[in-house]
Each structure stands twice: as C-alpha cells, then as structure tokens.
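Bit of a strange request maybe. I'm writing a small parser for structure token strings and I need a real example to test against, not something I typed by hand. Could someone generate the tokens for this chain?
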Amino acid sequence: MTSTEQDGAAGGPDRRTALQLAATAAVSGVLATGAGAPASASASTEPSAADGPPPAVQAESGTDELAHYYRFWEIVQGRRLVKTHGYWAFDGPPIPFDPSGVHRLVENPDTQRLEEGSAARKASERCDRAYSEMLRTLNRVFDGHPEQLRLAQKQMEALGKQARALMRMPSAPGAKTFLAPAFQLTEDR
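Reply from user aminoacidic:
Good idea to test on real output. This should exercise your parser:
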C-alpha cells in the first residue's frame, strides 16, 4: 500500500470519497427495493419524467421508496427527488453532507496487496468470494433460471454485511483510512 492509501488524501475527505461511501451505504436501501433504473436512463443523464413510470413505483415492494438509481441521483444532486406539478425534480429538502461522518477508504482496493493470512486479507477474500458468487447467481437468473433471483437477493444482503465489516477495518496499523471491498472475481467453486 502506498502512504496515500494508508493515510488518506491530505486535507480530509473529499466529495468523491463521500459519494463513494454514501453510495455504498445506499446499497442497503437498494437491497430492500430490488429496483433499478428504467431502460432509457443512463448514468450520464439525469432522470426525468420522460424516463418512464414514476420512480417511486416499486414492483412487489408495496412501498413508495425510490428505486436505487434515483436515490443515487439524490446524493449527487444534494436534494431529494419530489413530484411537483406532475414532474419529477430535485426540488425536495437538501441532503446534508457532513464530512466528519465520512470514513476515508483506501483508493483502488486490491485483495492481493493485503498481507497473506492477515485478518484484512481474509475479510477481503470473503467479500470477493461473496461478490463473485452473487454475480454467478445473477448470471444464472438471466440465463433462464429466474427462480434463483431470491437467492441472488440474499447473497446481495450478505455481501453488504461483509462489505460494511471490511470498511470498519483500518487499512494498516495507525492508518487514517479503512479497507474497502475490492470486488475482484474469484474462480468458480
């Protein structure tokens, strides 16, 4: 690990690091909704009324929670998405940003760079295995086995727990940064 990775960026957490943490935290909400972006939306375009059904409509959830795509856009915009006069806009209450509540995570985490046999390496390897197995399950879902979707959702929940545990581990003794999931693919089991 470089000293920058161990000690974090000088001057405290920046907005990109905060957004990474916020996005990771938002994954918990994503797991609850299981919803994604409409087909016409992309990461480079802001959602609008032209993107299809209202973003608050959640299939099978029975809630008015926003789909995760829109929740992430709320973080980027710094405001809640609300429907006003028949149109969706980021005109809702501000989403506060408190840099003191942001954990500084290592940049470009890599499981292989962690010390062999260390608690950090083992935790990162668990995340990598959980991530890989979840992707394999999702692949089976889209290869004609939709009955495995619930399994994939359970795997997402387990991955979220493992990732949060990893992000509580310092990147090195005395470091000001914390580990982060590497999301590296592992071999099939």
